[in-house]
Amino acid sequence: xxxxxxxxxxxxxxxxxxxxxxxxxxxxxxxxxxxxxxxxxxxxxxxxxxxxxxxxxxxxxxxxxxxxxxxxxxxxxxxxxxxxxxxxxxxxxxxxxxxxxxxxxxxxxxxxxxxxxxxxxxxxxxxxxxxxxxxxxxxxxxxxxxxxxxxxxxxxxxxxxxxxxxxxxxxxxxxxxxxxxxxxxxxxxxxxxxxxxxxxxxxxxxxxxxxxxxxxxxxxxxxxxxxxxxxxxxxxxxxxxxxxxxxxxxxxxxxxxxxxxxxxxxxxxxxxxxxxxxxxxxxxxxxxxxxxxxxxxxxxxxxxxxxxxxxxxxxxxxxxxxxxxxxxxxxxxxxxxxxxxxxxxxxxxxxxxxxxxxxxxxxxxxxxxxxxxxxxxxxxxxxxxxxxxxxxxxxxxxxxxxxxxxxxxxxxxxxxxx
Amino acid sequence: xxxxxxxxxxxxxxxxxxxxxxxxxxxxxxxxxxxxxxxxxxxxxxxxxxxxxxxxxxxxxxxxxxxxxxxxxxxxxxxxxxxxxxxxxxxxxxxxxxxxxxxxxxxxxxxxxxxxxxxxxxxxxxxxxxxxxxxxxxxxxxxxxxxxxxxxxxxxxxxxxxxxxxxxxxxxxxxxxxxxxxxxxxxxxxxxxxxxxxxxxxxxxxxxxxxxxxxxxxxxxxxxxxxxxxxxxxxxxxxxxxxxxxxxxxxxxxxxxxx
Lengths: 418, 259
What we know:
CATH architecture of chain A: Up-down Bundle
CATH topology of chain A: Formate dehydrogenase/DMSO reductase fold
CATH architecture of the largest domain in chain B: 2-Layer Sandwich
Largest sheet of chain B: 3 strands, mixed
Largest sheet of chain A: 2 strands, antiparallel
Strand order of the largest sheet of chain A: 1-2
Radius of gyration of chain B: 22 Å
Order of helices and strands of chain A: HHHHHHHHHHHHHHHHEEHH
CATH class of chain A: Mainly Alpha
CATH superfamily of chain A: Formate dehydrogenase/DMSO reductase domain
Distance between the termini of chain B: 93 Å
Order of helices and strands of chain B: HEHEEHEEHEEHHEHEH
Number of strands of chain B: 9
Oligomer: heterodimer
Helix content of chain A: over 70%
């Protein structure tokens, strides 16, 4: 037993990776306990900026999980069956993304142990009610969609073969689950933008195109995240096998989707305010020439949209795995930058309520150490969950055929041979 | 796979779902935009800027009667510039908006309209997401970031606590001292006339800069002022329809003291 354990603990890249993630996970758990014990006073959030780093992580992980609904729709509704292996990866990435978001929200709300009340007490007029319901239901859909994936776990198949077989069979309902997923995702991905877009008190957010931008950036970022994760896994471990032509084709789609996203973002940002409007103009200035300018021009526009757009649309660079991976990574970074910028540019501008035309002042916000500990802990959890999936659940394996399919396909040859 | 869904089925399901949700939303929107059910009383406050001397007694009385942590405040008194070299102040309780953004955005319905127009908080329902705080144009919400378990420095000098302390992690707000209104009316007192039925800040104000009363009663002091004098409501252009009216200071108000 001990010998066995010692053999297992031989230094290996896998163990080093898990140890590395564990450092962040432990820091995250410590931070989390402190937050639950002391309350949100340990954060640098204020009454003026009540939403900060955690909301960015939460919004980003939901956006980067959007590959699940987009690719499941492509496979099961549009019927492009050849992308099914990628949809499987996307589903798993989606499951991780949503669980990350929920973890982060759990830390972020003032009364974490009352979180279930969000499902009990309804104000159907609230966008966050809709988001809560959709996220809750969609997480259930993702869990069901992930059943056949979890059933691939060798240990589970050996120990509980009947249960594993049952879980595999959920695969038959994939088209129905894809409809539910598409429906719930389109609702809440856009509503997360609308949650900002309906707030009259913050002029920089108060605009209808927030929903469109959240939706578009989620589709672009979500598919990129899935493709990037697949390629990265295939590069570092032989447990992951990809069909490069599938990834390349979808990358081209991402390239074209970036064109659409670029158009909307450009139009949104630069045509938004021509005449001075209190709060809104200042918000734009924060983005274009204020403290967020580097994030905006460099992180969001240049690295997040323009460069990957060119890299993914140009046949030569798209065919090159290094350039393709870099481009996908940039898109993912750009979507995170967008969520960070949009949250802060609206919140940092404070409008006065004194009689007369509102005057503008600025708040400031830098996340505290504990916010970073918890935030990085949540991200480390995401990496660890995906790594375990690649290692044990065939999450990235384009040659892999679901057990259910094998069994169905085997029946006829068996009869013939007998 | 033998179970497939054709495009028509998909569209049918999607359309039915969308219609159901849209319907529910429209009905809800209609309810929300009307500002809730209206009762026989509509409480309102007039704050006369020309009388306010910025002493902050209203805030202290508020801290005591509502047992608020010294770290936060439901009622701010802000410097609001000068009129003829005389400093003027703006006292800001919750505006008790008729179309309150905080009520409309609250996902659990913890913020709600009372029939008498007070925007109330059900602190037991609240999960502390702070969406109301982001939505309020008046910064009238104060989140209690840490537990308040010490002594209240405003007690007993400025009054005795009349309501329970809130749990940690909820955005607190002014309630026009609903407890004083309700308890006062139960024994036949008239809010705005009798001190024991009026908000603590109104009672504590040494210059009577705050006037409280029923907008539905044409003979109440607030109705008379709103009818006869020019008043402003803060950020009125947003359409929130606040129930706090301000009489602005003019150079005439300082004519006697300066001359």
